[in-house]
Design a protein that fits this description.
The protein is an alpha+beta fold. It is globular, with a radius of gyration of 18 Å. It starts with 6 loop residues before the first helix and ends in a 7-residue tail after the last strand.
Length: 239
């Protein structure tokens, strides 16, 4: 996608313009008793309704775990999935029930960041259901193990309606009807529309804000179409 990696920096500038520069782009840390029920279905449904074939979806978990929990997570991955290949922190998982293939990475940092852990699973949109099931299984284990952290979910692809001149209206309309989302702020620049929403249906909120959903539209200068990314509680990483 044209300029998709550079868009992240532009969107961060947009967050500054919205007065949200100080807000964490990761979900708030919380004790396990405060965590919402794992449910990424609403965001995945949003993606399936708004994006053309070929979009990607990903789940991220960021938190803290001790050495024993890290060892247990490794055992979980090997016992609950067919691990095709493990090289360093990169894991390719195959769901035993469906044969669905998921790409993933996970790491537990040491040194000055000792105990911080990051897990990411990703797949194409056709594997969204298997991705959600894998995330749910891992989430259940993390809760039982007492690992403290939170999930975020993201989907990115090409917006379906290539004819509309103002796609942000359709995107915000879908957010409102599907997720009962209320717009908090919007940043617009040439070829960019970045919007934050308040919604209870994703079950996720970013630290220091009411945001539970974020969308980012970016015009492809070569095709004239629009790239779309949607995430809860906020978009993270490159998009």
């Amino acid at each position: 996608m044209d300029g998709i990696h550079g868009l992240c920096k532009i969107v961060l500038a947009g967050l500054a313009a919205l007065g949200l520069w100080g807000a964490s782009l990761l979900p708030a840390m919380a004790g396990n008793e405060a965590l919402p029920v794992f449910d990424v279905g609403p965001v995945l449904e949003f993606a399936s309704l708004s994006m053309a074939e070929g979009y990607t979806v990903s789940l991220q978990w960021f938190g803290h775990m001790d050495a024993g929990q890290a060892s247990g997570l490794k055992e979980l991955l090997h016992s609950n999935f067919r691990v095709d290949d493990t090289t360093g922190s990169t894991v390719r998982l195959v769901a035993q029930e469906t044969g669905s293939s998921l790409q993933g990475t996970w790491s537990r940092l040491s040194g000055g960041h000792e105990g911080e852990a990051f897990l990411r699973l990703e797949a194409d949109g056709a594997e969204a259901e298997a991705l959600a099931a894998a995330g749910s299984r891992i989430d259940g284990w993390l809760r039982e193990a007492g690992a403290e952290g939170d999930w975020s979910v993201k989907a990115a692809g090409v917006w379906k309606d290539t004819e509309a001149l103002q796609p942000e209206r359709a995107v915000s309309g879908l957010a409102e009807t599907l997720l009962a989302a209320q717009e908090l702020d919007t940043y617009k620049d040439q070829g960019i529309v970045n919007t934050l929403y308040k919604t209870e249906r994703t079950g996720l909120k970013a630290a220091g804000t009411q945001a539970g959903l974020q969308t980012a539209l970016h015009r492809n200068s070569e095709t004239g179409g629009w790239n779309l990314a949607v995430g809860a509680p906020m978009l993270t990483g490159e998009f």
